[in-house]
Amino acid sequence: MNIEVQCCGVVILALIWYFSLRQKTLKLASEKLFLVTMAVNSFCLLMDILSVIAINHQGFFSGFLLALICKTYIVSLIWVGYFGLIYALFDIKETKQKQRRENRIYTVGVLAGTVLIYSLPIHYYLEGDIVYTYGPSCTATYVFALLFVLVTLSKVVLEGKEMNPKRRRAIIMWMCIWIVAAAIQFLNANLLLVGFASVLGMVILFFELENPEANLDRETGAYNAHALGEYTKQLYDKQEGFSAILVAMGGNLSAESDGSSQKTDRMLQDIARYADKLKDVKVFKTLERELVFLAEDEKRMWEVLRDLKNYINYLWAETAPFYVVLPDSTLLGNVGELFLMLRHFRISRRKDSTKNSIILDETQIRQYKERERTEAMLRCALEEDRIEVFYQPIYSTKERRFVSAEALVRIRDQEGNIIPPGIFIPIAERNGLISQIGECVFDKTCAFIKKNRLKERFGIEYVEVNLSVRQCEDLNLAENYIRIMQKHQLEPSCISLEITESASIRIRENLLRNMRLLMDYGVKFALDDFGNGESNLNYIVDMPVSIVKFDRDMTQSYFSSYKAKFVMEAAMHMIQDMKLEIVSEGVETREQAEAIGALGIEYIQGYYFSRPLPGEEFLEFVAEKAY
Ligand code: C2E
Ligand code: MG
Ligand code: MG
């Protein structure tokens, strides 16, 4: 009988079944669909063999039964085509409604084909070992099967550009093999290749995509990062909530020595093996060599967390792992956000290794998202040059005029609204954008002073520009700032740089190096934020500043607290004895301005005189008040 090819097909399918079912799987939707397609294929192949046997032994079967067997075989062929198409569509991004509507059309098609094939007559050819079927029923099969193949091909080729490229390639190969086999069988009816061609399709899909082994991490036996992506994406798509725990091993993994890397490997293997036995939990290993545990509900997750911590503390206490816990996945909108969050908190841990766990509740996530939004806004503003500098005049109580100003950064958002620095400076300091912003502000300020000849026209002798602690660490700061002043041909005496206190000795050393270079060039320095809680008089002694700025809190408490008044007076005398000048910030009323002047403080900055003003308005202001 000409069933050798089909028998080979059966053996191949049996092997694929074995390898598919042997491994644990995540039961992803595509895996399930693949298994259904496999089942229909297997059924088709068995019916193929059965039909050849039945034709060969026509005497044993009634005419009706023979026709039923042969027609069931060819009907199953178009069902294979149908499932091939459904499997292919799985990855094509369309709206759910459109997908559902299309699937309905294909289902009606396959049912109509089934009815038609069963109702049309079929004929059998039998000569020696060679058997095959022909007649209207077979022709209908060819037509329907070809239709499914062509629809599948056109969908995948024309609309599948965003599909998983492996899936796209595998399906195209499968369909092409099918067309070739069908053409050969059509021309040479005794070569029964179509069933086998479909088996080849299964082989390609299995090796390219659906081998469960491809979702496993070889080292630990846990699911791998790819599987984590696919699985969580599916849960988000289906809107099924879950809870997650990420366990990062101690230290900075990328900087591990060989010894500790091997230890981490052993630890990962051990914990993954332990966790594999836990019920209702799936364990994944990420590319950063952390373990992620997913549980279907929060209650189970807390139990798992408790057990895990006990296990790790007992066996691996010295590794100090870090836990990121996400009790409710629906707090995040999609799988992309999930990975961004995990990445963010993994990095923040590397910076601050004192924490050993973090629970991502609503507040945490909201703050994180706000930070992300502000960061994006900042980058965009820098790119589109929407950084602006406002100037707040500073009044000299001795000379009774405005002698200087402070440059204060603002961002104009896309709608034209002004965003104050309190919102973005802390974030820029954390992500390092502050250096770029600081340089931009400095550049604009230098250009402004030079262009408007502030000193000659308005008697504004210098402008104060804020430096963030993060900038002071940078050993290129002095060089960059000197280059900017040279570019604008600006006298260094027109600039005073404001620094703030920092507890870090390393930062202080770098800051001092920068300060010396800039002071040699002719720039002077002011100490900002004095009196805001953490001020230290020693800092004034150590730092070569010529101005000390009393913080708004200090100025205000002078008027509200009896004791604070003495503190401020004492500080003032000490600072003046050191031959330093003082600016009192945050003066809001006439009474306050008069009292501060009477106290003997040289400079006043505050809303009483003016808020920080855009460049043009500042020029108008000082033009009116000059001399
Ligand atoms: P700062 O350097 O202490 O600047 C003084 C802040 O006090 C300014 O706030 C100013 O508008 C505000 N202020 C002045 N007088 C009064 C007053 O009478 N009442 C009240 N309520 N506030 C007053 P602003 O412009 O929002 O800046 C806040 C902080 O942002 C600055 O504090 C400074 O630390 C930082 N900053 C501003 N521009 C820059 C910059 O270009 N670079 C860096 N690194 N930081 C900057
Ligand atoms: Mg300041
Ligand atoms: Mg200040």
Which kinds of small molecule does this entry bind, naming each only once?
ligand C2E, magnesium ion
The largest β sheet comes out as: 8 strands, mixed, barrel
Low-confidence stretches: none
What is the helical fraction, as a range of percent? Answer: 55-70%
Folded structure, characterized:
The protein is of the alpha/beta class. The protein has 23 helices and 17 strands. An 8-stranded mixed β-barrel has the order 8-9-11-12-13-14-15-16, surrounded by 7 helices. Helix 19 (537-542) links the parallel strand 13 and strand 14 (547-550). Helix 2 packs antiparallel against helix 3 (63-89), helix 12 (362-383) crosses helix 13 and helix 17 packs parallel to helix 18 (505-521). Residues 406, 466, 498, 528 line the site of one magnesium ion. Ligand C2E is lined by residues 392, 408-409, 420-422, 425, 434, 438, 441, 466, 468, 498, 528-529, 552, 585-588, 605-607, 612.
Topology of this protein?
Blueprint: H1 4-22, H2 29-56, H3 63-89, H4 96-119, E1 123-127, E2 130-134, H5 136-159, H6 165-187, H7 194-210, H8 225-237, E3 243-248, H9 258-276, E4 281-285, E5 291-295, H10 298-315, E6 322-326, H11 335-351, E7 357-359, H12 362-383, E8 387-396, E9 401-412, E10 418-419, H13 421-431, H14 434-452, H15 454-458, E11 462-466, H16 469-473, H17 477-487, E12 495-499, H18 505-521, E13 524-530, H19 537-542, E14 547-550, H20 552-560, H21 562-577, E15 581-585, H22 590-599, E16 603-605, E17 613-614, H23 615-625
Parallel strand pairs: 6-7, 9-11, 11-12, 12-13, 13-14, 14-15, 15-16
Antiparallel strand pairs: 1-2, 3-5, 3-6, 4-5, 8-9, 8-16, 8-17, 9-10
Helix pairs in contact: 1-2, 1-7, 2-3, 2-7, 3-4, 3-5, 4-5, 5-6, 6-7, 12-13, 14-17, 17-18, 20-21
The structure holds ligand C2E and magnesium ion (2 copies).
